[in-house]
Amino acid sequence: MSDSKPADQFFDAAITLLQRARDEEAENIEAAGTLLADTVAADGRLFAFGAGHSSLAAQDIVYRAGGLALMNLLAVPGAVGVDVMPATLGSALERVDGLASAVLDSSPLRAGDALVIISLSGRNALPVEMAMHARTRGAKVIGVTSVAYASETRPRHVSGTYLKDHCDIVLDSKIAVGDAELTLDTIPAPFAPASTVVTAALLQAVMATAATSLAARGIEPPLLRSGNVDGGLDWNSRVFEQYGDRIFYRR
Known about the structure:
The protein is α/β, with parallel strands linked by helices. Helices cover about 40% and strands about 10% of the residues.
């Protein structure tokens, strides 16, 4: 670690990762946005899932001002976020075989839908099985993960595969194994994770691509507006009414 302030070093690391994601993932971002637009245009539904801290990026594109109203959170009880007690239970549930299939079989996901799965490591049973099972149900899968984990860690799913192996499109977050950007001689562990920053940016780039792709086809994107600006709530009510059969977070 150099003599510059740690905050500056973190910003520099995050900016470098964002630039890499922008430049190296441009084709995949375009493909993912087009896939979501195709799904919307074909009357399909959109879902997003992430376990633990990966759920933060998933939640950021659900019921979001400026985002697509049709994106629904696919929740796995106890695995989405760190609000479950103890928080370590969520990490344990990610390694449980069969859980993803049970959740999907009880969900509204169907053929023709699109599912975004966020998992930094992509090595645990939950995201791998979810991708596999979603595709057997006829859904398209977009995976957001760090591809580096596939070459530097061992898989935990019985198939010996990773999330990236079961996706129609993969977005590589470029995050190093361990998700910590800074080190210091006086601190025994690396620190300052950047995966949330990069993953959220990747997904918002995908959502922007999807909205503009729909508009280019003459389809008004079903976007939400902030409820804190005048007219925002009325706007959203109209969107909810028009697309209510494809929005599940209001039920």
